[in-house]
Amino acid sequence: MNELLSQVRVVLINTSHPGNIGAVARAMKNMGVSSLYLVEPHEFPAAEATARASGADDLLAAATVVDTLEAAIADCALVVGASARLRTIPWPVLDPRACAARMLSVAASGKVALVMGRERSGLSNAELEHCHYLVHIPSNPEYTSLNLAAATQVLVYELRMAVLAQGDSPQLAQQPEHPLATAGELDGLYAHFEETLTALGFLDPQNPRQLMRRLRRMFNRTGLDQMEVNILRGILTAAQNGGKKKTRD
Length: 249
Ligand code: SAH
Description:
The protein has 10 helices and 7 strands. By secondary structure, it is of the alpha/beta class. It folds into 2 domains: 5-165, SPOUT methyltransferase, trefoil knot domain (Alpha/beta knot, 3-Layer(aba) Sandwich), CATH 3.40.1280.10; 183-248, Helicase, Ruva Protein, domain 3 (Orthogonal Bundle), CATH 1.10.8.590. A 7-stranded parallel beta sheet has the order 3-2-1-6-4-7-5. Helix 1 (18-30) runs parallel beside helix 7 and helix 8 (183-199) runs parallel beside helix 10 (226-240). The model has no long low-confidence stretch (mean pLDDT 93). Residues 82-85, 116-117, 119-123, 135-137, 139, 144-146, 148, 151 line the site of S-adenosyl-L-homocysteine.
């Protein structure tokens, strides 16, 4: 299997129809992507999923079922959510080709996740906040929503095309100085911010407005590495300690 594609994970949230899970597995295997995570599927394992997967039932057998999106993406350095709608909250949006390029560049040094929403209601705003980017397939504006497996097919096809375009001599990915922070590490940072800003009186839990959402969006845009997360957490800890220098005694 291609090394970069082996870093790609497809995450399905709360899928209602097991047939769609099978069809997604087939779409993935056709394009050389094999890691499938299922967040609280309504029905799985299921005969219909296996039937629709056809020869890709090995992906279903190896699929990881988890309770939360956080658990599905904790170790990922890049999380992209697929959205059929342009959202009320502005969030950075990529088209499928740009999404593939971005995912492959991060895949050179870490795991990357493509998160697919529910058949009926897509992704919630809380789920969206876990994503560095959204990817939108530029469909007919009068009828934007593709079937879950069809949308997955388009996105993993672009990943495959991007890998093939690199040919036999992939550009040597520049090794980053420090690995990118994972979604789990970023969650820790945001929780630390929330706690510190509340203690400082900057964030009013009764009236939080959009502060945490805006901070998440800002940091997601920068692509923090692990060292930078440590620095920010060190600053927050210093602020929590009232700016007093720790004395060693
Ligand atoms: N009715 C839902 C769409 C559900 S389609 C809504 O309005 O949000 C199921 C999933 O397929 C979506 O959550 C999304 O992850 C993916 N999808 C469908 N159409 C898409 C599109 N045009 N671009 C990107 N993802 C799409």
